[in-house]
Amino acid sequence: QKEVEQDPGPLSVPEGAIVSLNCTYSNSAFQYFMWYRQYSRKGPELLMYTYSSGNKEDGRFTAQVDKSSKYISLFIRDSQPSDSATYLCAMSGVQGAQKLVFGQGTRLTINP
Amino acid sequence: EAGVAQSPRYKIIEKRQSVAFWCNPISGHATLYWYQQILGQGPKLLIQFQNNGVVDDSQLPKDRFSAERLKGVDSTLKIQPAKLEDSAVYLCASSFSWREVDTQYFGPGTRLTVL
Questions:
Q1: Per-residue pLDDT for B77 more than 90?
Q2: Closest residue of A to B107, CA-based?
Q3: How many CB atoms lie within 10 A of CB A77?
Q4: Chain A within 8 Å of B88 (Cβ-Cβ)?
Q5: What does the pLDDT read at residue A96?
């Protein structure tokens, strides 16, 4: 069993839709939860960062962490074609040395 | 602020050959990471440096992979000899420190194809 599970998709939605991306994890020691966005032929870039449980909002993006269920989500409101990318969840906290464990990534396409 | 630089961007070699990748982190960043990203998968940490010392290399295949970070700035990752399964994108990232709250900034990666 992988430490972090993420549905690879692909996921295709119309412009303006609400997108929900999810990851589950098995290691209860994870404390830091991130979402990265990766455009084709580019390196990942940090979108959202959450410590422990709770919600965090940044513009059209909302990150949720439910540690009791070992489940994290990223919501994208009013999705735009420019949001088309691969979204990677990542977690750390096991060794306290920022060792990130990534999910497989979900490939998202927003259709105009 | 300049980002993480990597070269070359693409490399094609035959199995059993050697290859080296170079990374220049963001100025002032003490922590440097090398990741391997196989097609369709998330990045996997290979090695983490704090300045010029190795913090974590538990997932580095040490029989064929080596990495160094001389003078605590630039870093090179070498594969010798390469295998078909080494085909992947090799990403370099840097952060101000090793603390969890410090963002990791990624370079564009080097795409390696082993034939």
A1: yes
A2: A43
A3: 13
A4: no
A5: 52
Bridge partners for A46 per DSSP: A36
Q: How far is CA B97 from CA B31, B47, B49, in A?
A: 5, 15, 10
Q: How close is the nearest chain A Cα to the Cα of B65, in Å?
A: 19
- Chain A residue with minimal CA distance to B50? A97
How far away is chain A from the Cα of B81, in angstroms, using its nearest Cα?
26
Q: Do A92 and A3 contact (CB within 8 A), yes or no? A: no
Taking only the tens place, the pLDDT of each residue in A90-112 is 998 855 556 889 999 999 999 99
> Taking a C-beta distance cutoff of 8 angstroms, is the pair B66, A9 a contact?
no
Q: What is the pLDDT of residues B23-66, one digit of tens each?
A: 999 999 999 999 999 999 999 999 999 988 998 999 999 999 99
Give dist(CA B67, CA A34) in Å, integer.
27
**Number of alpha carbons in the 13 Å side-chain half-sphere of residue A77:** 7
Is the previous residue joined to A81 through a cis bond, with omega within 30 degrees of 0? Answer: no
- Rounded to whole angstroms, the Cα distance separating B91 from B98 reads 17
Interface test with A, best of B49, B104, B111, B112 (most A CBs within 10 A): B104
